[in-house]
Amino acid sequence: MHELPQTLVNGLTLGALYGLIAIGYTMVYGIVQLINFAHGEIFMIGGFGALTIYIWLPSGTALSLALPLMLIGGVIASVAIATAAERFAYRPLRGGPRLAPLITAIGLSIALQQAVWAFYPDAKKPRSFPQFEGSSFEIFSNLQIQRGDAFLLIAAPLCMLALGLFVSKSRAGRAMQATAQDPDTAKLMGINTDRIIVMAFAIGGAFAAVAALSHGLKYGQINFEMGFIAGLKAFTAAVLGGIGNIYGAMLGGVVLGIVEALAIKYIQDIPGMDQLGGGAWKDVWAFTLLIVVLLVRPQGLLGERVADRA
Amino acid sequence: MRHRSLLIMTTAITAGALTLSACGSRDNKDDSGGKDSKTTVVIGVDAPLTGSLSALGQGIKNSVDLAAKIANKNNEVDGVTFKVKSFDDQAVPSSGKQNATSMVDDEEILGAVGPLNSGVAQSMQGVFDRADLAQVSPANTNPALSQGDDWASGKKSRPFKTYFRTATTDIIQGRFAAQYYYKDAKKRKVFVIDDKQAYGNGLATIFAQEFKRLGGKVVGRDHLTVKETDFSGISNKVKSSGADSVYFGGQYPEGGLLSDQVKQAGAQVPIMGGDGIYDPAFIKASGTSNDGDLATSVGYPVEQLDSAKTFVKNYGDQHYKDPYAAYGGYSYDAGWAIIQAVKAVVEDNDGKLPDDARAKVTEALGKVSFDGVTGKVSFDQYGDTTNKQLTVYKVTKGAWKSVKSETFKD
Fold first, then answer.
1. Is the CB of B304 inside 8 Å of chain A's CB atoms?
2. Could you give the percent of chain B with pLDDT greater than 70?
3. Which of residues 174-213 of B touch A (CB under 8 A)?
4. For residue range B374-400, what is the model confidence (pLDDT) as tens digits?
5. Are residues A235 and A297 in contact, defined by beta-carbon separation less than 8 angstroms?
6. What's the complex ipTM?
7. Can you give the residue ranges of every domain in chain A?
8. Where, by residue number, does the polypeptide cross the bilayer (chain A) (predicted)?
9. How many folded domains does chain B comprise?
């Protein structure tokens, strides 16, 4: 059990990353019942936005100084693309058949990926991302936290706290809850639902940008394809935690990350299971968990039972 | 009404963006205007021109293009103009198969160069074989492609008569790597990781066998998934296993990240891999240089061969957008082998292409022999290159430096 703490921390950081991206899926789904499959690409574009700012800054700028600017750059890029996607790709199809925006989302995802591949300089290979200087923090002899991970572990709870306060306390947040419950009634009460929907996309985009910046700092590189797997895992996390519930998205992400980390490390130590462990099988175990959770709680870990609206 | 016009606009923009990206990725250039008196022979190129391996794929495409241009300039084959037509397989086997079918349908294509990935090659071989269309891969290293599925038990038989390659097989590369680790670097406990692909898994298995045969110990074996970025779980296992070295069968995008994360986990051990990680992008995967990591690659270093210098110069003169990358030399040689085979066929047939040109070219390919960019180019009875020169490269101060070059002996 000597390596258990390290394994859990690895799982926690990975899970927090999934959770930050999952917020975007869950917010949008909660309000317009749309699975925004282009969200993985919005995450990726956030990373490139942050990198662009870093390149623009005079070389030699300390990362700690550049970081807030990079965060702003990433957020601007992600939010711009997310709201533009809402305005031009999803809103015209609202009220149409359910499948139409879904297919649009997939198309948009491919288009965004290829656009970065084709037009961002040197994006055909992974672009390296600035990293913190210095060694990792040693908490105990058997537990180290990388500097890049530390950023993620601080940023994720702060973002969740801010989002929780915003949704429950602010006027716009309460309007958002009302729209999620019943868009038509909310409209009758004088809520501009179009604005609320744009806001949901924008918040999702901003969280994706924070995730992308963390991803860059953690792994030291970003590439035009990174949205695909990250998006898929985050979507899984959102479903696991109960899609539509923001705390569920974060919880689902963390559970998913920890299960993956434990599966890599420990499954093959169980007698008779050495063929079914390791990195090759971690996704199998993660999805087995998802199936089991959905069998017992079809609404996900924290999901609420909602009557299916027409 | 406004609503509808917006919908139309969105559709138009999305469609436009998709078309644009498709154009960008698949520019099938027609650059040499054929004269009426000349026959046009097209060399098909199949490589990943988009996706994470596109840097390698673009290098392959450009190098074959260069071979065709040089052949046209020197009038290498009298009365024949060479053209190149490229196909994007995105490193996906099913796309490779589609491309192979398109090439077979195009009667001007007399030979194909590619693909990059062994897994893609498996899907293409049958299509080419049925059409008698010769295929020369500059990069496939999986032994089964040329020596049959039972090569490991010693029962070698060539499954497809149309398949040739200028790259050496994993048998040689994996064993060469094991010998270097055991004999030169004095490593005794290795942790073996692969990416579950035909190339990576095959290479890692051969390496592990040879390492054990030499007397070393394989202290752990694990697999990772292509396109993922988090390998912290595997890295921790490397650390706790007490391994003094890691061997990775796979490509540079995962290899570079794996190396960083193994070191971050606290295991200060080198990672060695095959030609799949021999790429500048491996070093720069995450900003910090992975000094001490190793890679084997086929052939001698470009700086040590005069023929290669000419290639590098000619490539530079063309001002291609992407560098020739790891397989440029082999791709040029693969293209040149097809050109030489066409030359032999045309000369045998009074300066004209025969009706069964494809079958004749395939036959002639087995007999070509010339001094290419990567050394002597010729093929053995399985279609494998007879060139068994290999080099070990080491990351030194942020660049690959050759540390040992040798002709492999059993």
1. no
2. 90
3. 193, 196
4. 888 999 999 999 888 889 999 998 889
5. no
6. 0.79
7. 4-296
8. 12-32, 39-57, 63-85, 97-120, 150-167, 196-217, 237-263
9. 2
